[in-house]
């Protein structure tokens, strides 16, 4: 009898352990980013690097600066190594000038901190040149003072005057992303912010219909030549006219009302629509919608005066 009782106890105990382990396994995915690391986290381990050093991981910094247009090795043998050479120093100086940082040419604390902030994936520069034409597009005197908006180069690129009603559709390669349940209404609100200061009107059409703009959530390499890099890296990107592609990174933590560890869906949508209409990044004004970097927990949905001046100048509405 004792042996039967002991056997039954063992069976019950085993079942209890199995249930507890199963619940633990099922509960694990609820913390969406336990297993993830920030995509730009590698930069903090390179802080203090300067010309003449050879430090493991510098090739990742080279990829970062290449991605955003500050560095072009043109098939140089140093593109994939960890040597801090003259070209890398020059690229860092260009980056520091662009963001009004102290120009040291080294990866100092302030520069590293700036680079680690999540940002839009659209490059700031092309072949070492800021996309805005200084002669025509930047620092124009106006009744509002000095303007800093920029257009795409070569360009400017704009939708033709006969095409002011733009149709958009949703088509994603990623499954339903948490925090994006209201993406259709949120994007409609974001489009409306630009409609209020331009002659554009926007209409959502079914996913199977022809459209001028396609919006979607994707991960990693998704076929447009601009791969996403995961959590807290490049959170979205969009084409200038008439490209029409607008992609969100499905690996980010999206929200309609962000907490400190979430990114605001509408704020990012307003920024990317600026690209779709022809505005490029504005590294001079952190308060502008078209500023490239965007912190988790921030909400920035209203067009800045400079954003409005830029889009109205681009389409001759001033």
Observed structural traits:
alpha/beta; 318 residues; Muramoyl-pentapeptide Carboxypeptidase, domain 1; 11 strands; globular
In short:
This protein is an alpha/beta fold and 318 residues long. 29% of the residues lie in helices and 11% in strands. The longest helix has 26 residues, at 2-27.
Classify the fold: give the CATH topology of the largest domain: Collagenase (Catalytic Domain)
Please outline the major beta sheet: 5 strands, mixed
Number of domains: 2
Question: Looking at the structure, what is the overall shape?
Answer: globular
Helical fraction: 25-40%
Helix-strand pattern: HHHHEEEEEHEEEEEEHH
**CATH architecture annotation name of the largest domain:** 3-Layer(aba) Sandwich
Oligomer: single chain
User: What's the total count of β strands?
Assistant: 11
Strand order of the largest sheet: 6-5-7-9-8
By secondary-structure content and strand pairing, the structural class works out as alpha/beta
Share in β-strands: 5-15%
Look at the structure and name the CATH superfamily of the largest domain: Collagenase (Catalytic Domain)
Based on CA atoms alone, the radius of gyration comes out at: 24 Å
Low-pLDDT residue intervals, each spanning 5 or more residues = 9-35, 131-145
Active site: 272
Binding site for Zn(2+) 2: 120, 271, 275, 281, 290
Protein name: Metalloendoproteinase 1-like
GO molecular function: metalloendopeptidase activity; zinc ion binding
């Amino acid at each position: 009898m004792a042996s039967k009782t002991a056997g039954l106890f063992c069976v019950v105990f085993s079942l209890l352990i199995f249930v507890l382990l199963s619940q633990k396994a099922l509960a694990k995915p609820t913390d969406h980013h336990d297993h993830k690391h920030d995509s730009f986290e590698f930069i903090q381990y390179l802080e203090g690097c300067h010309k003449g050093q050879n430090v493991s991981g510098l090739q990742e910094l080279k990829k970062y600066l290449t991605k955003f247009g500050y560095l072009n090795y043109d098939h140089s043998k140093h593109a994939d190594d960890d040597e801090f050479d003259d070209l890398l120093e020059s690229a860092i100086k260009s980056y520091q000038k662009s963001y009004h940082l102290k120009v040291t040419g080294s990866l100092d604390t302030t520069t590293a901190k700036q680079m680690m902030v999540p940002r839009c994936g659209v490059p700031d520069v092309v072949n070492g040149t800021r996309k805005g034409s200084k002669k025509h597009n930047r620092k124009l005197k106006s009744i509002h003072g000095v303007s800093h908006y920029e257009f795409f180069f070569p360009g400017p690129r704009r939708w033709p005057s006969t095409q002011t009603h733009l149709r958009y559709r949703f088509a994603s390669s990623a499954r339903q992303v948490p925090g994006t349940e209201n993406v259709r209404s949120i994007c409609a609100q974001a489009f409306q912010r630009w409609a209020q200061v331009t002659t554009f009107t926007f209409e959502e059409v079914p996913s199977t219909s022809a459209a001028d703009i396609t919006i979607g959530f994707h991960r990693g390499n998704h076929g447009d030549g601009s791969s996403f890099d995961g959590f807290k890296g490049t959170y979205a990107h969009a084409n200038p006219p008439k490209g029409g592609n607008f992609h969100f990174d499905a690996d980010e933590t999206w929200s309609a009302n962000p907490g400190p560890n979430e990114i605001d869906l509408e704020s990012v949508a307003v920024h990317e629509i600026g690209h779709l209409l022809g505005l490029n990044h504005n590294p001079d004004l952190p308060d502008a919608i078209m500023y490239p970097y965007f912190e988790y927990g921030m909400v920035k949905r209203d067009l800045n005066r400079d954003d409005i001046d830029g889009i109205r100048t681009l389409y001759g509405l001033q």
